[in-house]
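Request: When convenient, would you put together a sequence paired with its structure tokens?
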Amino acid sequence: MAVGTVLVTGGTGYIGSFTALALLENDYDVVIVDNLYNSSKVAVDRIELICGKRPAFYEVDVTDEAALDKVFAAHPEIDSVIHFAALKAVGESGEIPLEYYRVNVGGSISLLRSMSRANVTNIVFSSSATVYGDATRFPDMIPIPEHCPIGPTNTYGRTKTMIETVITDQVEAQRNNNKKAGKSFDQWNGALLRYFNPCGAHPSGIMGEDPQGVPFNLLPLLGKVATGEREKLLVFGDDYASKDGTAIRDYIHVLDLAKGHLAALNYLREHKPGVRAWNLGSGRGSTVFEMIKAFSKVVGRDLPYEVVDRRQGDVLDLTANPALANKELGWKTELTLEDACADLWRWVENNPKGYRQDPPAKFLEALKAKTS
């Protein structure tokens, strides 16, 4: 018997697919909606290969309210939503801002309206540490706690901030309206998960990040340099006030991040807190040069890079203070940076075409031996 049924928007994407897997492994049923803009339906097959359970899948755009209504109607058992579906490139967001607001903010409003009609009352939102902007502008805010003032420095971060506000207003309004009407109100809850830099792949070697086109994150780009698909890595700025001049980020293994979403969902269902924000990060900051060194070590050779100008909207340090999630959710990162690098390299080295190829037979055999 499933403990609940969760709709995962953007569930064939990188973090969405790993969260769908974590949900299935913890006795939830999963329904995925994704428009496959930057992902592959094959992720659903890989989820099933790993855990033996298959999520329901609908090719639906999150901005299409009527299509979302049909999914909720087909699955009246859905009681919660984990919302990933979004455009997510910082640089691109500054070039096509209207598209980012249309998809990210507009899509979230469509989803909340559809949830409201279907009486689905819990939402876990995949937000981002970019909502904090440059936390170094305040004293004692690195590593960044949840009470750090919000101040995004780019369009992508502003869309995430706006969605957090929309979710907060919606949950609080539904609670107040129900309270005034003498109805139960505490079923309306939202989790705002501000996370840092996800990385890594599944240790089985058959599931990982498979961006269509150019990836925007450091480790997938390094993976493409390591396989020879890209000539070199571009390092955006070496004039930051860090120990080696490159920007500092908090890298978190995607398996740990998926478990964080599961922990947040369980907390909403159990404690009914209204709206809560939690940082999901390791609390350890690594510079870009340190990451290049760590990944080069796993690959076994130095990877070429070139320093270029800073990107618009980038900040010096995005390191999480995860103390609140550690305490309230009973969640903390368990996997290391070295684990993430090793898992990513296993994935990209053995699956150079990502999901556009069959998984290596030796990995499938190892997986079958493990699950039988």
Remarks:
- The chain is about 40% helix and 15% strand.
- The chain has one domain: 4-371.
